[in-house]
Write a structure and sequence with these properties.
This protein is of the alpha+beta class and 175 residues long. The chain is built from six helices and five strands. The longest helix is centred in the first third of the chain and has 24 residues. It binds iron/sulfur cluster (2 copies).
């Protein structure tokens, strides 16, 4: 007799039930459609609100939107952005702009503070590489990425609007 008092036949019955339950699950999964896809040949659609790798964009006139103000550089927690400003007659530009994507935290603070919506996140993470140096993005690469992939919905302007208190709250605060 076993210690819990079920006996030989009791234990045999329990084992048979456990094996039957396990085999049922195995058989069910054997004919189930696979949930994996053959990435990168097959890419799953990303969620609408995905915010992935960073890029720089052009404004509606076709000029670089970045004015080299360096706000993104100051706010970046791991300090992976470096910008040099180039002063122009009508507006300023980024003379150089580098972003060490391999050390980026994807916190989005740089996007939130950008006054011209020049730096944005893309609706993709597809930048895998075995060479870390390819993740050191310069200004040209960042602009090229902005053209290559779909931009996320979030710009600095939209994100700041979301953080502003509702109008009623503002009015109450004044009273
Ligand atoms: S997402 Fe965050 S960590 Fe990455 S570059 Fe922008 S501010 Fe820096
Ligand atoms: S990306 Fe935006 S915040 Fe950064 S330097 Fe350019 S204009 Fe300024």
């Amino acid at each position: 007799m076993s210690r819990n008092g079920t006996g030989f036949w009791g234990e045999t019955w329990q084992t048979a039930r456990a094996v039957a339950a396990a085999m049922t699950i195995t058989l069910k999964n054997l004919f189930r459609k696979p949930v994996t896809v053959h990435y990168p040949d097959v890419v799953r659609p990303y969620p609408d609100r995905l915010r992935g790798i960073l890029a720089l964009i052009y404004d509606e006139t076709g000029e670089e939107a970045c004015i080299g103000c360096r706000l993104c550089e100051y706010v970046c927690p791991p300090q992976v952005i470096k910008v040099e400003m180039l002063k122009g007659e009508k507006r300023n530009y980024a003379k150089t702009f580098t972003l060490e994507l391999y050390a980026c935290e994807f916190c989005e603070l740089c996007v939130q503070v950008c006054p011209t919506d020049a730096i944005i996140m893309l609706k993709t993470f597809d930048l895998a590489t075995s060479d870390r140096r390819e993740m050191l993005l310069d200004k040209d690469r960042l602009h090229a990425l902005g053209k290559q992939f779909e931009n996320s919905w979030a710009t600095g302007t939209k994100l700041r609007e979301m953080q502003a208190p509702p109008k009623t709250a503002k009015a109450e605060a004044k009273e």
